[in-house]
Amino acid sequence: MNRSEGLVQRRNVLKDNNSDGTPKENHDDDKKNDKNYDDGDSKETRLTLMEEVLLLGLKDKEGYTSFWNDCISSGLRGCILIELGLRGRVELERAGMRRKGLLSRKVIVKSDSPTGDVLLDEALKHMKETDPPETVQSWIEYLSGETWNPMKLKYQLKNVRERLAKNLVEKGVLTTEKQNFLLFDMTTHPLTDNVIKCRLVKKVQEAALRRSISDVAHADKRSLALLMLAHSADVLENAFAPLSDEDYELATRRVRALLDLDFEAEAMRPDACEIMWAVFAAFTK
């Protein structure tokens, strides 16, 4: 795939359990590893990378993604890997003396503490139980169900879009309706909170137009990830469409510059999220 294509530690203490015996969500790793982590105290609704990318792809009134978008499925799996990386749950194995490339290094579970998100915890469980470990590229394929190995189909995350949409319904962003499409009925999720969608679109636009996005060593990791994942999922155009011609040209030029970066070199920077760069490399190879 052409890079420019598509542009127009769990604590060793007694385990805290809920009243039903299930482990409580442990957000310590999230706060420690993700500087942008918000445990719910913010007045703004916090969305995961998966929810943000899906929301960008959903048609506001119709409540479903484009039937012609065949990139969003793998894009959402990339979101899961990066979200787990930003929350300190997974990392890449050491490069070693021979300096293995990003796409050759295996994904290692760093912490198996629950994230509080069902999809993330399901993916994390698969990774923990897999021996030997697999690469980022393999996990994108396995979680998407796009593998020729029948032994790996058990790793497929099913109904991801519908499950993410239900999360957004619970957060008050979407609603649920039934629509008739001649031969079949389909559950759709039209937008109900336009403020959150507009805020997300503005966030993407400002991230692309901000000059500091080009300085990836100091750029906000979540903003950078959102831009690149939205491009990989082919939903970035939905955020850029309202821009003026001048801003549109600048935004697309900045994204192209990001796509042309040396991901291997960027991953070697101090404080870099290696798994994020590995996902970028997987989508642009």
Task: Put the structure in a nutshell.
This protein is mainly alpha-helical and 285 residues long. It is built from 12 helices and 4 strands, in the order αααββαααββαααααα. It has a single domain, classed as Orthogonal Bundle (yeast vps74-n-term truncation variant fold), CATH 1.10.3630.
Describe the 3D structure.
The protein has 285 residues and is mainly α. It has a single domain (49-284), classed as yeast vps74-n-term truncation variant domain like (yeast vps74-n-term truncation variant fold, Orthogonal Bundle), CATH 1.10.3630. 44% of the residues lie in helices and 6% in strands. It contains 12 helices and 4 strands, in the order αααββαααββαααααα. The chain has helices at residues 28-33, 49-57, 72-86, 118-129, 136-144, 160-170, 194-209, 221-232, 236-240, 245-259, 263-267, 274-284; strands at 90-92, 107-109, 177-181, 184-188. It has a two-stranded antiparallel sheet with strand order 1-2. Strands 3-4 form a two-stranded antiparallel sheet. α2 (49-57) crosses α8 and α7 (194-209) packs across α8. The longest helix is centred in the C-terminal third of the chain and has 16 residues, at 194-209. The model is unreliable at 1-6, 8-15 and 36-43 (pLDDT under 50).
